[in-house]
Write a structure and sequence with these properties.
Elements (H helix, E strand, L loop, with lengths): L2 E2 L12 H7 L5 H24 L3 H27 L2 E7 L5 E7 L12 H27 L3 H26 L5 H25 L1
Parallel strand pairs: 1-3
Antiparallel strand pairs: 2-3
Helix pairs in contact: 2-3, 2-4, 3-5, 4-5
Protein name: Golgi apparatus membrane protein TVP23 homolog
Keywords: Membrane, Transmembrane, Transmembrane helix
Family: Belongs to the TVP23 family.
Amino acid sequence: SNDDIEDVSLFDADDDVSRRSKKSKIRHPVASFFHLFFRVSAIVVYLLCELLTSSFIACMVTIILLLSCDFWAVKNVTGRLMVGLRWWNQVDDDGRSHWVFEARKVSTQGSKTSSEAESRIFWLGLITCPMIWVIFAFSALFSFKVKWLAVVVMGVVLQGANLYGYIRCKVGSRKNLTSMATNYLGKQFLRQTVAKEDQTAS
């Protein structure tokens, strides 16, 4: 796989405070809107469809269409515009499948073209919605709503695939995700400890 990695901040914790005012504007409002629109709409339709109509087929088709539109939009448009990341699969001449994870290169001035606000919107939507579909999956399983289980599994698979792909873009295809999470939590704990010591000293 081709790894062209830029350190795009997952939670924007490493950005300089001086740059935050410059990076707080949403530069791609349409992309930011549709990044959340399809995935939130699918969740709302799933929650309300039994109240609005008695047709399971209509609800299922609507939810799957929304999930498919979300998968395509996030994979091909919003990830590239909002955080400068993209991933895809390609097959070489020998018939072997290769996953490619790319990140936008830093410009010569060292500045990033994505804003802090867009990055937060992107990662918040990307992480939260698959977790909600996992909760729906357990709910459908334990309440014996077997007909809804296939719809919920589609939500978990489509949104989970985008989440996995973009995390691989963020941390690099050969890095251990467990060690990345451990390092991040360690940094957060250290910052909280230093902040408490500063408060105590003052």
